[in-house]
Amino acid sequence: MGFLIYFLILILVPLWAQMKVKSTYKKYSKVPVSTGITGAESARRILDDNGLQHVKVVETQGFLSDHYNPLTKTVHLSPNNYHGHSIAGAAVAAHEVGHAIQDKESYAFLRFRHALVPVANIGSNLSWIFIMIGLFTSMTGMFMLGIILMAAAVLFQVITLPVEFNASSRAMDQIVSSGIIRNDEEREARKVLNAAAMTYVAAAAVALLELLRLVFMFTGMQSDD
């Protein structure tokens, strides 16, 4: 029964977070921003205000596929946010520009996250191979190696939290100071950003929970030897 509840948590928490962000985004994507500018125009204005004229704003395909690419110095906005005139679009665009500002200022957590990318990729791709080998062969060394690799991937998700929260904080400051939204629209914009942040919180929480479960399993294997 305990394992059933545990796995339900692993499944339901991320699903709840995804439903929350989609429903919040859908609601406020229908609310026009008072200034009437598009997400692309919002991003361009904030970039220019922060001396980032060299950073491009481009349209990318997909639903909520918005992101900032630090290698190409490009803000990618999904079609609804690029062309739309909504509070949700302005908030999302400002959030991605927040990452560009972090990049410009060499924000410590962003730099740390970038440095972790190769290790985190290896960890997420190989950790379960070593864990399963260790589990079926009772080789605790292999199991421990899998846990270490998974820990690197989990650390990446944990470090992502301050990066995302900081980008959202910058986004709120920028869309207000640049005149993109009025003061009475701040509440709606903040709801969009908070809902998006919950997906990262849920992912990190689930990853930490799974890592702890494996650590307890390893401790049990050690005590059995």
Automatic annotation (TrEMBL):
GO terms for biological process: proteolysis. InterPro entries: Zn_peptidase_2. The keyword Hydrolase applies. The keyword Hydrolase applies. The chain crosses the membrane at residues 128-156, 192-216. GO terms for molecular function: peptidase activity. Keywords: Hydrolase, Membrane, Protease, Transmembrane, Transmembrane helix. Pfam families: Zn_peptidase_2. This is Zn-dependent protease. It comes from Bacillus aerolatus. The lineage of its organism: Bacteria, Bacillati, Bacillota, Bacilli, Bacillales.
